[in-house]
Design goal:
The chain is α/β, with parallel strands linked by helices. The chain has a single domain, classed as Alpha-Beta Barrel (TIM Barrel), CATH 3.20.20. Helices cover 34% and strands 16% of the residues. The strands form five sheets. It has an eight-stranded parallel beta sheet, covered by helices on one side. Strand 12, helix 5 and strand 13 form a beta-alpha-beta unit. The longest helix is centred in the N-terminal third of the chain and has 18 residues. The termini are far apart.
């Protein structure tokens, strides 16, 4: 699939509106950390999570994710406080309350989910607190991943510079706070949320190795890293997973990241596997996305801009056609397509809706014949998605190489 810039030129009014949205988002969120992994979008040590436990409502077999073994579809927990007191929101205009979020996570585990993803930056802190509360009594059933990497005060949640911070002392301080919020004695996989260009990745990997030796962390991973940073980190401490955006809407990892994971034996986790709701059928050609009271990330995402959205709906039509052909929902078709690409890929769709969560897990039982997958991939390759995948300030944080070791 080719991703090209818009073929239609925005009007001056449209350009002004987009600039206003970007300024408003930057002012309100400071290119907020919880915005940076807009999906929710790993891990544990063998024997830590009982991923081979009975899974009465989930049909798919377990799959290898680097050194881990998990159910094929995970759960991304990326939430923040809403504008209304007591409300918890995601990045796409969906909302519920904290008790409902806890019930959702526990139901997911009951239905077989054994891989849960969250991050310090989601809230900040709120998502980890909810996950920690939800997993009381069932922590041993899941592989738990969380992330560090932004300059957030581990005590107050205040963003100190609005940038990244992977200094070793900060990582250690963050992990201690994460263990308290998650109500656990160890983190199964600790991810660097975004590469810090000012800190050698060898220093980061060495710090995580020390945390592993102390029993506080089991595995290490990176999110949206530069390719050479992956190799350098892996040489110090073998990486369990890479987590990048990947879906039918954004196939960028296929060029270099997936081959590198295959070469090094690293598992791959897909954030935003449903294209921010686009592939599930939740977006129409005339959809518009809110800036307030709770920001919908798609309001500042170029591929959802009014001037390109109608053209991009061709992908929605293709997904719908194939879903009908396979007798599944568009969301299930989209997730099953990811699972069919490599046996070491695990998507982590997020949701606030228990019915959608249950639907997503059904993707694990959807299969493709070789001819079907080739045909679908050819049809996808013929489409041209207009608009960049992320706003420029967010995009600039992806593919970054760490500072050279001094």
């Amino acid at each position: 699939m080719n991703h090209t810039p818009p073929t239609s030129r925005p009007t001056p009014d449209m350009q002004a509106q987009r600039r206003y949205l970007m300024r408003t988002a930057a002012a309100a969120l400071g290119v907020a950390p919880w915005l940076l992994s807009a999906c929710a979008s790993q891990a544990g040590a063998p024997g830590t999570a009982t991923t081979s436990a009975a899974q009465p409502d989930a049909a798919g077999a377990l799959r290898k994710l680097g050194p881990l073994e998990v159910f094929p579809v995970g759960l991304g927990c990326q939430w923040r406080p809403g504008a209304t007191p007591g409300v918890v929101v995601d990045s796409y205009s969906s909302r519920f309350d904290r008790p409902a979020a806890i019930r959702l996570i526990r139901q997911a585990v009951d239905e077989g989910v054994s891989f849960i993803d969250t991050a310090e930056a989601y809230g900040p802190f709120l998502s980890e607190e909810i996950v920690g509360e939800a997993l009381q009594g069932i922590r041993h059933k899941v592989v738990l991943e969380t992330k560090f990497g932004f300059d957030i005060d581990p005590v107050t949640g205040q963003r100190l510079t609005g940038g990244r911070n992977s200094q070793p002392a900060h990582i250690r301080q963050v992990v201690e706070a994460q263990l308290r919020r998650l109500r656990t004695d160890h983190i199964d996989v600790l991810l660097q949320h975004r590469v810090d260009p000012n800190v050698p990745i060898e220093d980061v990997a060495g710090t995580v190795k020390d945390l592993i030796d102390a029993g506080k962390v089991r595995h290490f991973g990176l999110s949206e890293p530069g390719l050479q940073t992956v190799r350098r980190a892996h040489a110090v401490l073998p990486l369990a997973v890479i987590q990048n955006e990947y879906s039918m809407l954004w196939r960028g990892p296929e060029a270099e990241v997936l081959p590198l994971c295959e070469e090094l034996g690293i598992g791959f986790v897909c954030w935003s596997p449903l294209g921010m709701g686009f592939l599930a059928g939740g977006v129409k050609a005339d959809s518009r996305f809110a800036m307030a009271p709770d920001l919908d990330f798609r309001a500042i995402s170029p591929r959802f801009a009014p001037e390109v959205l109608p053209a991009n709906m061709a992908l929605v039509a293709l997904v719908r056609e194939w879903a009908q052909r396979k007798g599944v929902t568009p969301a299930q078709l989209s997730l099953a397509w990811l699972l069919a690409q490599k046996p070491w890929i695990v998507p982590i769709p997020g949701t606030t809706n228990a019915a959608h969560m249950h639907e997503n897990l059904g993707a694990a039982s959807v299969t493709f014949r070789a001819g079907e997958l080739q045909q679908l991939n050819a049809a996808l390759g013929a489409l041209h998605i207009q608009g960049d995948r992320l706003p420029p300030p967010v995009m600039a944080l992806s593919g970054v190489e760490a500072a050279p070791r001094r």
